[in-house]
Structure formats: structure tokens, C-alpha cells
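thread: overnight batch results

M.L. [08:02]
morning all. the overnight job finished for the chain we discussed friday. pasting input first so we're all looking at the same thing
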Amino acid sequence: MKELIWKTFVKDHENIKDPEVRNRYTKLTGTLGIIVNTLLCVIKIVMGLLINSIAVIGDGLHDLADSMAAVITLIGARIARKPANKEHPYGHARVEYLTSLIVSAIVLIVAYELMTSSIDKVMHPGGTEFSWLTVGFLALAVIIKGSSALFIIATGKHINSLPVVAAGTDNRNDVISSIIIIIGMFIQYFTGFELDGYLGCLVALFIFYSGFELIKETVSPLLGEKPDPELVSEMYGIIMENPVVNGVHDLMVYDYGPGKLFTSFHAEVDAEGDIMEIHDNIDNLEKEIYDRMGMVVTCHMDPIDYSDPIRDKMIDVIAKAIVPIDGVESFHDLRVVPGTTHTNIIFDLVMTPGSKADHDKIKEELQKKVTEADDKCLIVINFDDAYV
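M.L. [08:03]
and the structure it wrote out:
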């Protein structure tokens, strides 16, 4: 069903890396969110006032927050489409993350106001009436909003848009709170025990949770999180398909907002190869990644002497030596620099981010293994972090 809706309302719907197409998807989900949430908000608040239910009113206020979030998301998407300028050469796509923070703030404010009102209702209960009409509408609202939430979340994941996924997730949480209210109304109907204030507190907690989750999901990419493993795997595949590339390391992905990714990496090439041919292939590789993945690429060439027997021997020794060492992921860029009294074995050692392993002890252990293989070799290590 969702594919049919995308095809019907989103022109060129398959080209999700195109900023204009992404904007059409965002407009679709935003418009849907505004229509559904505004309608539900008005009816729930009216019904809540008629039966004097703070929980139902709070549920309506949550719908109002969702509607405002959809409006803000549309505004943010429009700003994010602005082209790069002198002050912002990487574009404005990160505005989508900032709009998520604004939405989170609105959600938390609604949660706070609902919690204070609900606590007051707990302290001063009474006056809440049972209504089959309200129960029936809330049940219908669960179906309508649940379907809308699932569609919005699926669309957000389809175009890799955090604000859209966030809006859908908040809608989904609102469905849960509506179900809880229905259950509470039935308990009151059959037992006579009024739960309205307690249900209002529970709904407020759901909204609080939703707001904090949105903040966590938004702050993470702003701080700089690891790129999607599938994206990294696809990029590695493209790089290693190139005929002059024998290895790749120091891959980094820089996120300047959805659809605005930059990447850099080191490509290992044969030091004995034709430099002009290699450079031409690397140029083609950068263009290929951009065409297939929409990422701006910078590639550094690392010439490797594959004919050096000492290098082959040391690669084997170090590969076996790092296996039992905690915090070490891999090594690369191994090169041999011979001298009159000794030979330097220089390489980069990739450490797990956050690892507290003692670098001096690691170097001591690896030097011991290298010395056992060749007592004239000394190691020189550059410790790297893994960014992917």
C-alpha cells in the first residue's frame, strides 16, 4: 500500500537521493500529519471537555503537538533545501536535525503541562463521565492514527529522514496512550473507580519518553555517529571493484544532513604502477561513488611495494600478533624502511573508539613478536581510531 501511495503522490518517487524528491516525500508525510492530527485534536479536546476527562484532553493536546511538529518539519525541510552559500559551503541540510530538536522541545512542554494538570486531577478527583461515543471515537482514532504512524515511519526510513521518522514515532506513541485511556475508561465503567488523573499522568510519561527519545536520536548525528554499516559496505564494494585498488583504509564519512554526505579514504595502489593510469582510475572511482551514492569523495593514494619479501613476512607476523589483543581492530599502511643498523617497520594500528588499552604495552608486545621473526626490525606505530 505504501508503495502505491508513494507512486501516486511523489513524482519520480524512486530517486530518493534527489533533494527535490526527498522534499516531496516530506511534504506528503507533513500534510498527512497535519490533517490527521488537527482533526483528532479538535474532536478529542471537545469530547474531553464534555466528559471532564483530563486524560482525553491530554491525548488531544498530544495530537496538537504532533500537528505542530508536522508544520515545523515542513518548514525545516524547505530551509534545508536552500543551496550552499558563502557562509555555509556545505549547504543547510542539518537544519532537519535542528527542527527535530524544536519538535522535541514542544513535546516536552506538552508533557509537563499535562503532568501538572493530571496530578491536580489525582489530588482532586471527580466529575469524569463515561461515554460510549468517546470510547468508540478513541478506538477509531487508534486505527486512523496507527495507520498514519506506520506509513510516516516507513516513509522516513525509506528516504533516511530523521525528522520524518521522529514524527511517525511520536504518532505511534500517541496510539499507545489512546489505548491506555480506553482501558482505563472501561475499568472506571465496571468498577466505579476513577482513573482519569492517573491515566493523564501515564499519558504524560509516554509523551516525556517520546520527547527524550527524539532528543537522543537527533543529538547523535550532530555529535558525529558511525555511518550506516550498509552504506560503508556498499562503498567498500565500489572501491574494491576498481582495478588499481588493492586495499582501502582510513575511510571517514562526514554527515552534513540527510542527503548531504562527504567521504574520504586512502586507497592502496601498486608503487610500481603507472602513476598517470592510477590517477585516472582514482578520478573515475571518485566520480563513480558520487554518481551511485551521491557522496562527494576525496581519495588519497598510498603506494605500496608489493615485491618486498620483508613486508610480506611482517604482515603475516603482525596479523597473527594482534588477534589476542583487546581494543585492536586491524592494521594498514605497512611499509619497510631499511637502514644500515636496523630496518623500520612502519604501520598504522586501528583501535576501537573508546578503547582504554595501553599503547605502550601493545607496542611492547608487537615488538617482541617482530623481534622473534627478525631481530633487526624495529616497529614504528601510528595509533588510529576506527571511524566506520
